[in-house]
Design brief:
The longest helix has 18 residues. The radius of gyration is 21 Å and the shape is globular. It contains 10 helices and 18 strands. The protein has 416 residues and is α/β, with parallel strands linked by helices. Bound molecules: flavin-adenine dinucleotide. The site of flavin-adenine dinucleotide has 40 residues, from α2, β12 and β16.
């Protein structure tokens, strides 16, 4: 079933009776070529690209809850490629390029909106750092501009330019950054994978791995054993728990991150604004709600809910930079469990166990990475070698000292 303007018109005129479910409800088979553990954005994108790019369709995605129940449906929807380091910049730029063609590619409206992202500058040192970042972005083909306060004032007159605790001195602006409707990404990839023959199995928790003589032969699940030639884990916030079942200890901690949505307002915020000095970021959804967030709660947890001190801290950040937000009422908030790696960068790699692969450590930046992560993970699974843009995301980088410390903050999850 392809979506088109003609189809919508026809269905509108005939009582909307021709729409079908976008994926099948299936029981797992006994054996697959590839089993993907985790039906979040990354797992579904991996399945989609495995089928589309490499013709590998004897694939199952095993999801312990329902599709979209994890971070893919809990994030603040920001996409961008404003990264500095060699290991990261080309990867996130590849992702942004894939976002740009995604809706046509999988024939689904994911509401990709390149409304721009503004990183505010509050000191000379920060201007130097952002100028360096912007230059690195431009060198690898991404777009970046440095704005002065006049430029920002034209775009966002509601920011506090007169009396802010951290005066605004400029901004790094990436016009191609923006937002995407997060759960539509999960549904679009799910539909694209399913229509190419991938089995999506919901309510199927992986509870163990079958490992014989250093080779992974399949998984144990809440719906029975499933054999597989390759097992690809991408369970985001559950990474440490799931990989512990294979006897692996990861350089990853799990922390909760909260998101907030205000009541619907008339259009006021043109793009995405980030306020690093107070750790606050905000955009406005197409329904009018201000969508915002800040720091992780700062303690290890697997609970998908946060605590009140961080609510206060995030709202203080908002008030410090755009006092008008104090007039908006908070409508809803939620939490998601973040797989915070110790250098703030992810992993897409084989493990020391043959046939067992790992994708994780996305911290709070994995939504924007979804297309490139799926694309590169599918490449690794199909070809047994890393995709050229993801060669740095190795599990052994902490042994060799080749960390990708994007922020230069060291092993401090709350500073990534
Ligand atoms: C509040 C919040 C705001 C964020 N904002 C942004 C943002 O603006 N921009 C950005 O780029 N990133 C953002 N992120 C981060 C981003 O959402 C994540 O990095 C990304 O979604 C993680 O990948 P995923 O979609 O595959 O994860 P998930 O959707 O969490 O997928 C993992 C899946 O694995 C399943 N699973 C776990 N254990 C098992 C098991 N044993 N068996 C089977 N299945 C299992 C889970 O149920 C889950 O569905 C945010 C995250 C949060 C929580």
């Amino acid at each position: 079933m392809r979506y088109s303007a003609l189809k919508i018109l026809k269905e509108g005129l005939t009582g909307n009776k021709g729409w079908k479910p976008v994926w099948r409800e299936l029981d797992p088979k006994q054996e697959y070529d590839v089993v993907i553990v985790g039906g979040g954005g990354h797992g579904l994108a991996t399945a989609y690209y495995l089928a589309k790019e490499y013709g590998i369709t004897n694939v199952a995605v095993l999801e312990k809850g329902w599709i979209g129940s994890g971070n893919v449906g809990r994030n603040t929807t920001i996409i961008r490629s404003n990264y500095l380091l060699e290991g990261n910049q080309p990867f996130y730029e590849l992702s942004l390029k894939l976002w740009e063609g995604l809706e046509q590619d999988f024939n689904y409206n994911a509401m990709v909106s390149q409304r721009g992202i503004l990183n505010l500058i509050h000191s000379d040192a920060q201007r130097d750092a952002f100028a360096r970042r912007g230059n690195a972005m431009r060198l690898s083909g991404a777009d970046a501009e440095l704005l002065d306060t006049d430029g920002i004032q034209k775009m966002c007159p509601f920011l506090d330019f007169d009396n802010a605790r951290f005066p605004i001195q400029g901004a790094l602006w990436q016009p191609r950054g923006g937002t995407v409707r997060h759960d539509a990404v999960a549904w679009g990839y799910a539909r694209g994978a399913d229509s190419r023959g991938v089995d999506l199995i919901q309510n199927c928790e992986v509870t163990g791995f079958h490992i014989e003589n250093g080779v992974c032969r399949g998984v144990e699940t809440s719906r029975g054993a499933i054999k597989a030639k390759k097992v690809a884990v991408c369970v985001a916030g559950s990474s440490s728990r799931v990989m512990a079942q294979a006897g692996m200890r990861l350089p990853i901690e799990s922390h909760v991150l909260q998101a907030f949505v205000s009541e619907g307002l008339k259009p006021v915020i043109p793009g995405v604004i980030t306020f690093g000095a107070g750790h606050f970021y905000v955009s406005q959804s197409d329904k009018g709600g201000l969508v915002f967030g800040g720091d992780i709660d700062g303690y290890n947890t697997y609970a998908q809910r946060g605590n009140l001190p961080v609510v206060e801290d995030v709202c203080e950040g908002g008030m410090a930079i755009m006092p008008m937000i104090g007039r908006a009422r908070l409508l809803r908030m939620w939490g998601g469990v973040m797989d915070m790696s110790m250098d703030g960068s992810p992993f897409i790699d084989k493990t020391h166990i043959d046939g067992l692969f790992f994708n994780g450590g996305w911290c709070y930046g994995g939504f924007k990475a979804t297309p490139a992560s799926g694309f590169c993970y599918a490449h690794l699974l199909a070809r047994d070698e890393p995709h050229p843009t993801a060669t740095a995301y190795r599990l052994d980088r902490f042994l060799s000292g080749a960390q990708i410390d994007e922020k230069g903050q060291g092993a401090q999850p709350n500073l990534h």
